[in-house]
Amino acid sequence: MVVNVTNLNKGGYLMPTGFTPNNDGLNDCYGIKYWGTILDLEFSIYNRWGERIFFTKNPTDCWDGRYKGLPQDAAVFIYMIKARTTCEGSIFRKGTFTLIR
Q1: Are 15 and 93 in contact (CB under 8 A)?
Q2: How far is it, in rounded angstroms, from Cα 33 to Cα 21?
Q3: What residue segments make up the domains of the chain, in order of their start?
Q4: What is the pLDDT of residue 10?
Q5: CATH for 18-99?
Q6: Among residues 23, 28, 60, which one has the least CA distance to residue 41?
Q7: Using H for helix, E for strand and C for coil, what is the string for the chain?
Q8: pLDDT tens-digit series, residues 36-52
Q9: Over pLDDT 90: what percentage of the chain?
Q10: Could you tell me if 80 and 44 are in contact, meaning their C-beta atoms sit under 8 angstroms apart?
Q11: β-pair partners for 19
Q12: What is the rounded CA–CA span in Å between residue 64 and residue 86?
């Protein structure tokens, strides 16, 4: 038996473009999903003034739309992710997403 391993079906390590933290059980938390096994992680979220409002090294943690216990207004936020997975030695992703109220 011959097994050919290729990178044609690579996940791309995508992130959602928005979330709705309204406690309806759908999209209430912004985080990493479907990235496989994450070995190392630095996940940060910043507001439009560049203030880091969320940080974790735990792949199962996600942001609930609060900062210092207060719900944040609907706005665009920035994420930055540095990670290492079992499939990829070094991953860096940054982008924006929208908190929808």
Answers
A1: yes
A2: 16
A3: 18-99
A4: 64
A5: 2.60.40
A6: 60
A7: CCCCCCCCCCCCCCCCCEECCCCCCCCCCEECCCCCCEEEEEEEEECCCCCEEEEECCCCCEECCEECCEECCCEEEEEEEEEEECCCCCEEEEEEEEECC
A8: 899 999 999 999 999 99
A9: 80
A10: yes
A11: 99
A12: 27
Block residue for tokens 């990493």: 32
Nearest CA-CA partner of 79 in 13, 10, 11? 13
Written as six digits, the tokens of 44 are: 């940060």
Count of Cβ atoms closer than 10 Å to residue 78 Cβ:
16
Interatomic CA distance for residues 30 and 83, integer angstroms: 17
pLDDT in tens, 75-84: 999 999 999 9
Which residue in this structure is represented by tokens 């959602």? 16
Find where tokens 């944040």 sit. Answer: 72
